[in-house]
Amino acid sequence: MNAFSFSAAFITFFSVVGPPKVLLAFAGLAQVHPARQLRTIALISSGAAVLVGLLTGITAPWLLDVFHISTPALQLAGGVIFFIYAVGLVLGLHLGSPTTHQDAPDLVSGVRELLMPYVVSPLAMTAVLIEAAARDSFSWRSTVVGAYVAVIALDLICVLLLARVLRRTHHATIELLGRLLGLLLAAVGVDLILDGLADLGVPGLYERH
């Protein structure tokens, strides 16, 4: 495993699904779930994220080939989905979240809330597929998957260590940070869309690279 390649992949995944983004999602759950239940949710969702990342990374070339997906199309799809999710954060609309989980918080509702931002993050899965399919080598795909799993492990450690702090964070603070993060993530989604359009050869976009 090439150390430089691993480091580059790790930085990529840290930027799209690292603690700065994941902790905010868990902070919202910490307001309605007991600390022990939050830790269990973190373990289950992290395990699911690792499983999804492993399957996606190892099978990336075949997945893209079977579904006839090009890299630009993947970038566009990932960017659009993530942009919609980010706009929801900015407007305070928790897309895909059950409206009654505050009354009876449980493991299922907690894990469900983490599906989009964490377990099957559009940005993370797009990055895994693109990076893993960049080279026709099992060792490279293993490097990509290893870097992704390392970031998920770091996320889990941070959540477990900061569970009590997250629970004591004021709801208004979480809302404020969520909307600010949503604005930044919306820009990331737009940037990914522009990358996809540039790769498709849309005039006027190559100057960005």
Account of the protein in words:
It is a single chain. With 209 residues, this protein is mainly α. The protein contains ten helices and no strands. Helix 3 crosses helix 6. The longest helix has 31 residues. It is globular. About 3% of the residues have low confidence.
**Shape label:** globular
Mean pLDDT: 83
Largest sheet: none
SSE pattern, N- to C-terminal: HHHHHHHHHH
Strand proportion: under 5%
Class by helix and strand content? mainly alpha
Number of strands: 0
Rounded radius of gyration (Å):
17 Å
Number of helical segments with 4 or more residues:
10
Low-confidence stretches: 97-103
The rounded distance between the terminal residues' Cα atoms is 28 Å
Approximately how much helix is present in the residues? over 70%
Summarize the model shown.
With 209 residues, the protein is mostly helical. The protein is 78% helix and 0% strand.
What attributes characterize this protein structure?
10 helices, 209 residues, mainly alpha
List the helices and strands and how they pair.
Elements: H1 3-17, H2 19-30, H3 35-58, H4 60-66, H5 71-91, H6 107-113, H7 115-119, H8 122-132, H9 138-168, H10 171-199
